[in-house]
Design goal:
single chain, 130 residues, alpha/beta, Rossmann fold, 5 helices, 5 strands, globular
Length: 130
């Protein structure tokens, strides 16, 4: 089991699969964090515009507004405000080309499913959140 976080992060999780959302919430709790879970990119954008988050775990494939489009919207709005939300793209696609695309669009990291506490903890360290 992972050690508790020194600072509790407020995380936005966007995934259209209820099982993946529950898993993400459970993993975050294991690491000592909490947040808000939404089921698509539109809801993620709305939540991001209304609240302050420390991190966004963003599934790539979702209905309505997919993860890559959501990433692009957030980064475009951030250019106008100077804000920066760390965004981790969550995907089952482990091809290097996919990760390169997400990074070139502004993702801070890419996490390959299934989501695991140790993997997420490593990413949080790499992007300087813990």
């Amino acid at each position: 089991m992972a050690s508790p976080a020194p600072r509790k992060l407020h995380v936005l999780i966007a995934d259209d699969q209820p099982l993946n959302l529950r898993l993400a919430v459970q993993v975050l709790r294991t690491l000592g964090h909490g947040g808000v879970a939404v089921k698509d990119g539109e809801q993620a954008l709305n939540a991001w515009r209304q609240q302050t988050f420390d991190l966004l775990l963003l599934d790539v494939r979702m209905p309505q507004l997919d993860g890559l489009s959501t990433l692009r919207h957030i980064r475009a709005e951030e250019r106008a405000t100077g804000r920066h939300l760390p965004i981790v793209m969550v995907t089952g696609d482990d091809l290097p080309e996919a990760a390169q695309t997400y990074h070139s669009e502004g993702a801070d990291a890419v996490l390959i499913k299934p989501l695991e506490a140790k993997q997420l903890e490593t990413i949080l360290r790499q992007i300087g959140l813990v």
